[in-house]
Design goal:
The complex is a heterodimer of chains A (264) and B (322). With 264 residues, chain A is an alpha/beta fold. Chain A has one domain: P-loop containing nucleotide triphosphate hydrolases (Rossmann fold). In chain A, 41% of the residues lie in helices and 23% in strands. Chain A has a 6-stranded mixed beta sheet, sandwiched between helices. In chain A, strands 2-1-4-5 form a 4-stranded antiparallel beta sheet, with helices on one face. In chain A, a hairpin with a 2-residue loop joins strand 1 and strand 2. In chain A, helix 3 packs across helix 4 and helix 5 packs parallel to helix 6. Chain B is mostly helical. Chain B has one domain. Helix content of chain B is 73%, strand content 1%. In chain B, helix 2 crosses helix 10 and helix 6 packs across helix 7. The longest helix of chain B has 28 residues. Chain B is globular and about 55 Å long. The relative contact order of chain B is 0.18. Classes of the chains: A alpha/beta (264), B mainly alpha (322). The interface between A and B is medium-sized, with 39 and 26 residues.
Chain lengths: 264, 322
Amino acid sequence: MTPLLSVRGLNKNFGSVIAARDINVAVAEGEVVGIIGANGAGKTTFVNMVTGYLRPTSGQIEFLGRDITGQRPREVIAAGISRSFQIPQVFSTASVFDNLLIACGIADGARLPLWRKLRQRAFTDAAESMIARFGMVDWRDQPAQLLPQGVRKLLDIAMALVRHPRLLLLDEPTSGISVEEKFSIMDVIMEALRRERVTVMFIEHDMDIVGRYAGRVLAFADGTLLAEGDAETVLNDPQVQRYVTGERLGQRTAREPPASEIRA
Amino acid sequence: MERAVPTQGIGFDRATQAILLTFAGLAVAALLVPGWMVYLLTVILARALVVLGLIVLWRTGLMSFGQALYFGLGAYAVGLSQKFLGLRDAFALVLLGLAAAVFFAVVLGFLLRQYRDIFFAMLSLAFSMILYGTLVKSETLGSTDGFAVAAPSFLMWKPTGLAGQYSLLYLTMTVVALAAYAVHRYLASPMGHLTTAIRDNEIRVEYLGFSVARAIHVKYVLAAGLSGVGGALVALAVGHIDPELTYWTTSGEFVFVTILSGSGSVLAPLLGSALFELLRTYATDYAPYSWQMVLGICLLALILFLPDGLWSLLGRRRKSAP
């Protein structure tokens, strides 16, 4: 069966810096894939290339069997891929409702004649439905710039969902959110996405979140795909523990004396 | 909690009612004012068209410092069509003014849509100064003196004197009313809402599947078209065109009026344009050697105390009403 997303031999260089090196990934419909890696490992570069924000230096990206390598964001979106951002990309001066209303209107706008108003039933109902689905009813009329980070994240993801994508990439959906709130926010997100039946890839630094929500994990280090497989296998991989989660490094530090003491 | 359901159907919304009432009032008031004000009203309304276009750009987060380019193109399209083609019909001349502005905006828009902020502003200014330089250097185009524009005919009718002035005023009034309504409907549409959306976050607009560059291009052409029509109407009202119409100070005046008006309503340019003419008239009358300083101080006070323009005063009053 053709995978939903197929990435082959993907490379990205910024001058002499190699941000992505020979990445090969296949994602099947309905999967929830976690992407892990230390800062600078190439996770966001990978997402940026898949969503058209960056053009790969070489390699191929296929979505539903169609080559989308190097296409612009709006072409990638039209193909059925959407994304959220580490820093939520919302319309800061507009309320939550207006953000979603505008998103619904723009997403559908290219087909609309100019004289049709944005404030029409189809769009307002869609916006209200998104607000309810993402649990933002209490924040409905708040300007986006005044929202707590968690709600801004939810709004960003809800806006990414208005075009009903087949594949949604989430860039650190819980970054900047307190430890206590992370799981409740992720529960809301994953429940909304399950109802939408969208395939999900999400970048995450919290391994508890990855372990709980990801069916499969991709581990990045130094621009390469270090390991992939089910969450338990990948998170227990010694290489992943050394280069990504840092757990082996932590163990070694606890057991071994500091270098300064050795010299003394 | 019950949510208000947006109104739909064929009833007029509040803004449309305000446009209708304003222009109906103006049409009646025009019959009562002294003859010399007919000309002034025509110019105020025609210049308000340029500001209406600038408001669309401003809401998108862009400000053109060279809108006189299209204002001048509209005016020169009228003058040159009269001079070389012998056209006198006001409707045809206004349409030619529109076509000239739209044509150049479509071409230049491919470059300008790639720039933002001060780069957009200065690039638009550069283009207007290129036209100014061309006009000043060209004898065929009238050089620094420009040339006269004859009173227009209206289809087959050729009114003279005050009747001619009134005819042009009502034509201008109709055009501005239609333009205000069209811009209002445009701003209420999904494409119109792209203005503030682009100003707030271009990345999100792209990731909703719409080209920001294309949207800006459309808005730029819209603003240019309105400026071209404004320029054509001013040329017919004044009866003379010269390169000053395309000079940077003319563009500066339009920016001044835009800030004075605010972007809160499609009717704001009427208020701003009228007040600017009033301000300039009295400033030159009472301070003939320092009237620019008076305008500068007014602009400073406006930015400090009314950054959202005069129209925001009406908004505040509505909010504070019980």
